[in-house]
Structure formats: structure tokens, C-alpha cells
Amino acid sequence: MLGEFGSSFVRHWAQRFIEWRARKVCFLIDNRHVSRFTISLKVVQMKMKWTLGVVLVCLIFGSNGIVEAQNKSDAISNPPKAELDRQDEASIVLFDGTSLDQWRGYQKEEIGGGWKIDGDVLKFDGSGGGDIVTKETFDNFELIFDWKVEQGANSGVMYRVSLGDGAPYLSGPEYQILDDEVHADGKNPMTSAGSIYAMYAPEGKVLKAVGEWNSAKIVLNGNHLEHWLNGTCVAKTEINGDDWNERREKSKFKDWEKFGANRSGHICLQDHGNVVYFRNIKVKKLNAK
User: Fold this and answer.
1) pLDDT band at residue 109 under the 50/70/90 scheme
2) Distance of CA 221 to the CA centre of its chain
3) Which of 11 and 202 is assigned the larger pLDDT?
4) What is the dihedral angle through the alpha carbons of 187, 182, 268, 104, rounded to the nearest 10 degrees?
5) What is the H or E stretch that residue 238 is in?
6) Fewer CB within 10 A of the terminal residue: the chain, N end or C end?
7) Distance between CA atoms of 265 and 134, rounded to whole angstroms?
8) How far apart are CA 136 and CA 13, in angstroms?
9) Can you tell me the distance from the alpha carbon of 146 to that of 170, in angstroms, rounded to the nearest whole number?
10) Contact 258/165 with Cβ under 8 angstroms?
11) Is the pLDDT at 105 greater than 60, yes or no?
């Protein structure tokens, strides 16, 4: 509805319009025709009141439509709290800033000393300790996390990783984490930050400066793979699709039998010997395509 202010506003300007029309009629008529003027003025006032009524009806119903459309827009952009709670319930918190209970070492159960909780941040200080992986395995999922690096640093997040191999990258494709400006891998788009490492270069990415947080997302559903960086999907492919297989044949992964072959596996944070930071790590399981 219009509300008290809106109704007063319409009435005020409608009355002003009626008065203006009356003055105009008065100016145009001859003084010898006062009675005719009086009748004309009454007709004008009646017509103006009728017009005002039409305007009010249109504004009332029109405003209802606007309010309804706004409510629908708000419902889309601001989901109800219950819906947000359900979305949170569907996610598994892999790191909440307080513990590494969801993680283990890649080569052994114990997590190496280089991985430390610093405030609400998971920091790898570069001192060694090996890669770490989730205790749980995931097949189809959406993984979100924030990351930042110190100057010249290199790291990565791998997925569908097998235990028991010499290294996690023998089975798991990698989301590259890198200082593009300083590290040599940044000179090659195929191995730069956000890439599907050594397979697909990122496109249209906006990378934050060293020391600033980047937001990342990995979507893996069936064979469909996406890498996201700071709100943009920068790389996507179909694992074991024709293009993937053609690229793999030309890459260092050519003879790695398990690379990209697992349908399920662990998520891995890489020890590459450099300082890197992670926070807000969550994973949501997806229904297979």
C-alpha cells in the first residue's frame, strides 16, 4: 500500500492540479458568463476527482506489484535463515580455525610439525612435515577455501587422492596455489595460480597480491571439473574426456597410470616447502550427475 505519506503526497498534488485548472478556466471565461463559469468549474472539479480516484487505484495496485516483486527479489538474494541453516548443515567443515581433527598425514597418521593453527588460520611454515589429507574420502563435491602465500611460494590442493603411493600428485589432479609474480611456474599459464596444474591454464582470473586472501572453489561432479578463483570459474573440463586424454598424452602425466583415474579419494593440502595459509575450508557432497 502507499502508506500515510504516499497518500498525502498524491492528495496534495492532485488538489494543486485542480486549483490550477480552475484558475485557467477563470482566466479564459468572460465576466459576463459567471453562471456558465460556475457550472464549468464544477464539471472540472468532478472530472479531476474522478481522475484522482483512477490515479490512486493505479498507484495502490501498482505499488502492491512493486512490493511483491521486491519481496521476490529479496527472497532470491537473501534466502531465509532456515534455508541458510540447511545449506550450512549440508557442508562439512574441514577446518574451523580450532582443530585439525578432519586431517591426517599423507604418509602416516600423524600430522607433521610444519602445519600449525595460527588464530583462525591453518599455516604451513615451510619447515617440513609432509602433505596432509582428509580422513574422509569424497567423490562428488564442492570444496571452498581461502588461501594466501608469502613471496615466491608454491603449494596446491589435490583431490581424489589415493593413499599408499609415493606422492599424492600421482593420483590427484591439482589446484595450483602460487605467487605468480615471483615463482617460475607463474611464467607458464598452465602452471600458474588457479590452473588445473599442467593440464589447463586459467582464463579471466583476478589474482590478489601476495599476502592478501584469495577465495577458491573446486567443483567435481562425476567427470565434470571446475576451478574457481575469486568468484570466477577460471578452468573447467571433463576428466577422461577426449580433450583431457589428448592433453594428458602430451604431459608429464602420460605414464602415471592412476592420475585422474580415481572416482573417489582424499583431499590433500601440499607441502611444497614454502609458507602458505588456508582458512574457511568446507566441503559439500554433491549428487552424482
Assistant:
1) very high
2) 18
3) 202
4) 160
5) strand 232-238
6) C
7) 9
8) 69
9) 25
10) yes
11) yes
- What does the pLDDT read at residue 12? 59
User: CB of 112 within 8 A of CB of 269?
Assistant: no
For residue 237, list its beta bridge partners.
225
Q: Predicted confidence band at 243 (pLDDT cuts at 50, 70, 90)?
A: very high
- CA–CA distances in Å: residue 232 to residues 20, 196, 226: 58, 14, 10
Taking CA 275 as the corner, what is the angle to CA 169 and CA 154, rounded to the nearest 5 degrees? Answer: 40
- pLDDT on residue 10: 46
Count Cβ atoms below 10 Å from residue 98 Cβ, excluding itself.
Answer: 9
C-alpha R_g of the chain:
33
Distance CA 85, CA 225 (A): 27
CB atoms within 10 A of CB 157: 23
User: Residue 58: which pLDDT band, with cuts at 50, 70 and 90?
Assistant: very low
Kindly give the pairing relationship between strand 214-221 and strand 224-229. Answer: antiparallel
Question: Can you name the residues that pair with 226 across neighbouring β-strands?
Answer: 219, 236
Whole-angstrom CA distances from 79 to 14, 73, 76, 82, 86 are 40, 10, 6, 8, 11
Cell of 129: 612435515
- The CB density around residue 271, as the number of other CB atoms within 10 Å, is 23
Q: What is the mean pLDDT of residues 137-152?
A: 98
Return the C-alpha cell found at 261.
Answer: 583415474
User: What's the pTM value of the predicted model, to 2 decimals?
Assistant: 0.71
State the Cα–Cα distance between residues 253 and 43, nearest whole angstrom.
90
Furthest CA-CA distance within the chain: 111
Whole-number average pLDDT of the chain: 81
Q: What grid cell was written down for 235?
A: 578452468
Place domain 87-285 in its CATH homologous superfamily.
Exo-inulinase; domain 1 (2.60.120.560)
